[in-house]
């Protein structure tokens, strides 16, 4: 099996390189290898590589900057995805793609199901939804994994920022009215490899399983609770903090106005992927605890 991976140097892509390797040959492409904005060359490269599976972890993810750069966000999140989907359809191979909780407006009172009404509030959310629709309209076999609040050892993310600020500042003020769960890149990559592995088994019918799935750990929380948990775990490991967990102050999202509007509720129901593929999605605290332990071993947070 030859797997063509886009976004190979990002948070999810870095983990995918590790988890996909046992499945076969991984052709890992970052922006330096293939420029996704060059749509004609993108199609040509996919044709020349002739993969068995396309895994797209590339995306324009600068949520606030997208408000002032909608054209760039659209090229990466919509147009390039459309090219991948059309090539996957032409080659009759599956496309694995990652989307976001930002396709919803956050007004739902409970967990979002895959078929709930979408209504993105930001340019980022709108382009990610358009990318989903490009895949569906192409007719290619696909798995679209919607996830939320991604973090990893590499790249910029909320848990890393909290660890750094807790050693630099005297006080932390964190939003407590946006609800969701943090999802580790390693969990996303592990589940992806699990699903691809099962799709290659003879008894598994891709025609029936092709579609959209929510992929987040279990539980529910908010940014304020995550910050406290991260600092509590760090403190248990003996890390000296200038801001202790009880010094974290909860504030409404209006305290930190941003160009892009975030959904107040980002909670996704992941039962479908658990039922279909038999994957385990542990409580969010499990991977965050592992993350803090790994980061504590680094000299610089």
Any chance you could write out the topology, listing elements then pairs?
Elements: E1 2-6, H1 11-20, E2 25-29, H2 39-49, E3 53-56, H3 70-91, E4 95-100, H4 123-138, E5 142-147, E6 150-151, H5 158-168, E7 172-175, E8 179-180, E9 183-184, H6 185-199, H7 206-209, E10 211-214, E11 221-222, H8 223-236, E12 248-251, H9 271-277, H10 284-296
Parallel strand pairs: 1-2, 1-3, 3-4, 4-5, 5-10, 6-9, 7-12
Antiparallel strand pairs: 8-11
Helix pairs in contact: 1-6, 2-3, 3-4, 5-8, 8-10
Coarse morphology: globular
Strands, count: 12
Proportion of β residues? Answer: 15-25%
Mean pLDDT: 93
SSE arrangement, N to C: EHEHEHEHEEHEEEHHEEHEHH
How would you characterize the overall build of this protein?
This protein is an alpha/beta fold. The chain has a domain at 2-156 and 182-218 and 267-281: NAD(P)-binding Rossmann-like Domain (Rossmann fold). 41% of the residues lie in helices and 15% in strands. It is built from 10 helices and 12 strands. It has helices at residues 11-20, 39-49, 70-91, 123-138, 158-168, 185-199, 206-209, 223-236, 271-277, 284-296; strands at 2-6, 25-29, 53-56, 95-100, 142-147, 150-151, 172-175, 179-180, 183-184, 211-214, 221-222, 248-251. A 6-stranded parallel beta sheet has the order 2-1-3-4-5-10, sandwiched between helices. A two-stranded parallel sheet has the order 6-9. A two-stranded parallel ribbon has the order 7-12. Helix 3 links the parallel strand 3 (53-56) and strand 4. Helix 1 crosses helix 6. The radius of gyration is 19 Å and the shape is globular. The two termini are 38 Å apart. The mean pLDDT is 93.
């Amino acid at each position: 099996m030859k797997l063509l991976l886009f976004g190979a140097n990002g948070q999810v892509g870095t983990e995918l390189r590790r988890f996909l390797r046992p499945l076969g040959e991984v052709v890992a492409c970052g922006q330096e290898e293939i420029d996704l904005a060059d749509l004609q060359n993108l199609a040509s490269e996919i044709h020349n590589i002739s993969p068995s599976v396309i895994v797209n972890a590339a995306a324009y993810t600068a949520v606030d900057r997208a408000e002032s750069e909608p054209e760039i966000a659209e090229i990466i999140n919509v147009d390039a995805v459309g090219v991948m989907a059309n090539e996957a359809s032409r080659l009759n191979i599956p496309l694995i793609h990652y989307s976001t909780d930002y396709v919803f407006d956050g007004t739902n009172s409970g967990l979002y199901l895959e078929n709930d009404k979408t209504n993105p509030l930001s340019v980022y959310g709108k382009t990610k939804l358009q990318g989903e629709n490009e895949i569906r309209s192409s007719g290619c076999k696909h798995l679209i994994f919607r996830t939320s609040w991604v973090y990893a050892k590499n790249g910029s993310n909320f848990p890393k920022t909290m660890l750094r600020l807790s050693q630099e500042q005297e006080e932390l003020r964190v939003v407590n009215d946006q609800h969701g769960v943090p999802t580790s890149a390693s969990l996303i990559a592990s589940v992806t490899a699990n699903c691809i592995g099962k799709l290659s088994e003879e008894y598994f019918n891709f025609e029936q399983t092709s579609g959209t799935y929510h992929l987040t750990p279990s539980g529910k929380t908010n940014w304020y609770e995550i910050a406290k948990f991260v600092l509590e775990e760090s403190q248990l490991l003996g890390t000296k903090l200038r801001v202790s967990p009880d010094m974290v102050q909860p504030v409404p999202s209006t305290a930190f106005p941003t160009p892009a509007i975030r959904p107040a509720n980002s909670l996704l129901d992941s039962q479908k992927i658990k039922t279909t593929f038999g994957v385990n999605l542990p409580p969010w605290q499990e991977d965050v605890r592992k993350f803090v332990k790994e980061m504590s071993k680094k000299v610089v947070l």
